[in-house]
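User: Okay, second chain of the day. Same drill as before: sequence in, structure tokens out.
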Amino acid sequence: MIPFTFYDALAGDYQTPTKFALFGIPWDANSTHTHGCPRAAPYKLRELTSFLGRATELEQDITQFNICDFGDIKVLSSKPEQTRKNIIEFINEMLPWNICEPIPVMLGGDHYCTYPVIKALHSRRQEKQEPSFGVIVFDAHLDYYDKWLDEESDFHCTVTKRIADLPNMGVEKVIILGVRDMDIPEIEMAHHDNLKYIPAYKLQNYEQIAAELQKVLQQFQKIGLSEIYVSIDIDVLDGSNTPGTGYSIPGGLTYRQLWNALRFLASHFQIIGFDLVEVAPDLDLPTNLTQITAVKLITEFMGFIIEQTRLNE
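Assistant: Same drill. Structure tokens below.
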């Protein structure tokens, strides 16, 4: 087996049709520290890419995906405002927008890291008067608190609410899949705001997955959305398969169910960015199963996007 590693990712030719701009946000100051350390994940996920072969399940050579690893964004845990500013500046100024349309791929960090990334991408669209995009979140939780414990508005369990509250975003452009651990205040607010979410029990076989995702497709088509950002909280998978996360919940999706869902999304939407968050390496010993699963999902999803790009050429 010839291993692939993000450390050896190709700088590539920015004129090629699809390119992935990989970067890490080693930040978990917006989470509960007693539940693992997601800040270690960007480094460990890169390291564990060498554990896997260089081909996807569809027999694509990952080293030909034109991945460019931009390293990690500077995180100042005691200065959250500055860290958010660093993330937004990185998206706007470090990625090579002037010569191509990169697909940002973020390695978290806790789930709050998704918010400033989407905020930056959304603001770019607004400033350039370009069409908006939808957001698909795979998560065991709604993360729809307005304020955690009536105090924390910027926290890992408020991320979906913060995204939906962005100007000209709204709940109609956000859908959560795989939910199975909810609190009453979140449910009440989600119902009040008409937030769309699909419980995990409705995604138990391929037919159910296809049917529910077809509804997602129709909802977004009605409001003219053809592009999406996908956020994957690793706890959307069943806890028996992914012990290395801070809030592991039973009854989740299998790797194969999520694999099929991601392939469906890549074949029906243009993916403008994605992330994978909430992997806690310190909770994943001794097998590293959660981290290996995360790396597989990242590279397989890249493969689906490449596959669809070539079909559209």
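Residues 8-15 have pLDDT under 50 and may be disordered.

User: Thanks, on to the next one.
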